[in-house]
Design a protein that fits this description.
single chain; 228 residues; 27% strand; globular; seven-stranded mixed sheet
Length: 228
């Protein structure tokens, strides 16, 4: 079977509120080695020629800060779009800026700076065979469910922790996100696909080091990873 030459756009999400992280600045602008963390992942994605356009979805209050950091990137096809109140709305806003030839949409959290080029390459390669996929890792810890003083061990055989990037056919992603309601409590694109399509997303095995900056403790670990 001849492989389809897909055209990729990247949505890099910087619009979170960083409510769990705290601090005075959006976590994606935290500095490691004098470099905001979102630029670590941006630099890696820029090395992939299959990605013809990058849409950065930002928080309105960070616009001037973001523009300043992107000054050295003017030669790249990067467009900025303001995010929404929820993640799925931010992604949907970004979808309005896709290039006309785009067939696959990559969504990545700007708070995951340690995604490897190997993981990105593997996800792009496998996306040629699937309508949708997400990078993830198998759960290895023992999982307990506790309700009203009752504890039950959950089998981890088929459990995965989801990461990004997530890659989906453009038309599929537009269709499912257009149907999402606020009460759906959608936390990633796969939830919308699960709810509003018959597609079963594929899981591309990633790395435990592809962590998301969520707490202050994560920042110390990321400093270690990115300084190696």
């Amino acid at each position: 079977m001849m492989k389809k030459n897909n055209i990729y756009n990247l949505l890099l999400l910087l619009g979170g509120k960083s409510s769990r992280y705290g601090g005075d600045v959006n976590k994606v602008y935290c500095l490691i080695n004098n470099k905001p963390i979102f630029l670590y992942s941006l630099d890696k994605f820029l090395e992939f020629k299959q990605i013809v356009k990058i849409i950065i979805v930002y928080n309105k209050s960070d616009f001037e800060l973001l523009k300043n950091y992107l000054t050295p990137y003017k030669q790249y096809n990067i467009e900025l779009v303001q995010g929404g109140e929820e993640r799925y709305l931010s992604v949907f806003n970004g979808l309005k800026k896709l290039s006309s030839d785009c067939t696959k949409v990559i969504v990545h959290d700007g708070a995951r700076p340690n995604v490897s080029k190997e993981t990105i390459a593997k996800a792009i390669e496998e996306s040629n065979e699937y309508n949708s996929l997400s990078v993830g890792i198998k759960v290895t810890d023992t999982i307990k469910k506790v309700i009203d003083g009752s504890m039950k061990t959950i089998s981890r055989d088929n459990l995965y922790t989801m990461q990004t990037p997530q890659i989906t056919d453009k038309d599929l992603l537009i269709d499912v996100l257009s149907k999402v309601k606020e009460e759906d409590n959608i936390t990633d694109d796969l939830m919308a696909i699960e709810k509003y399509s018959n597609v079963c997303p594929h899981i591309t095995i990633g790395s435990k080091d592809n962590i998301k900056l969520t707490t202050q403790e994560d920042l110390d670990y990321l400093r270690y990873l990115l300084s190696k």
